[in-house]
Here is the input.
Amino acid sequence: MRAVSEALESLIELLDLEPIEVNIFRGSNPHEERQRIFGGQVAAQSLMAAGRTVEVGRPHSLHAYFLRPGDPNVPVLYEVDRIRDGRSFTTRRVVAIQHGRAIFNMSASFHVDEPGLDFEIAMPEVPDPESLPTLRERLEPYRDQFDGWFDRPHPIDQRHIGPLPWMHRADAKPIQRLWLRADGVLPDDPLLHTCVVAYASDMSLFDTMLAPHEVGWDDPEFMGASLDHCMWFHRPLRADDWLLYDMDTPTSHGARGLARGTMFARDGELVVSVTQEGLMRLVRSKPAG
Here is the structure.
């Protein structure tokens, strides 16, 4: 059995929200040097807050908007609105609040498992994750450029297939593929596994939007931010088993880009679909004088 890394233990603690009133939870932040809270953390904590108010059913979809940058120095309050409790579907709305203002808004739906029609596309043929180097190993030659990344703990093991998306190349394609899984064995809590996947889903999508462009996060004339994030959970999953994250970006225009992703279990089952729109703004420097 794989040992649970310290970083994964910290993520589990972040997702163990503190109930402070009926339908109100408080989420903490990691002790890291960041300018803003990682979007996947807020999405995962929001989904956990919603799930804590649902008696039956598992998450099958979420639709969320990033409204303001999160302040990493103060906790986040999550207010849950119990929109509907039906026999098959349960709907929740979650608002994440800091400094008295909403920073994130999510609608999440939960579905009681039932039989039905079944179909899925085939998983792409890719190398096994064990044959690929870790992201830390891939970035080691560029440690000086990604020094902040090495200083932070990483609860998700990532194994990229092909070139890294932020290493700009003239022939870069608008796709990205990688294997990912939690860095250790998680408790057998289906909601926790779903929330960990929600956390991990935001780690690569924006990089896919940037792949075909000659700009990056280190470009002083570029400003990027996630605008919205949508997920559909098709089948039960485990976040501590390998998942293939297959992503592409069909378009970018008008300072916005779109990325799409599908996650496949190791046995080829399609378990999750994801879409995200991002702000891709070019900030032209003013001429001197």
User: Anything to note?
Assistant: The first strand starts at residue 18 and ends at 21.
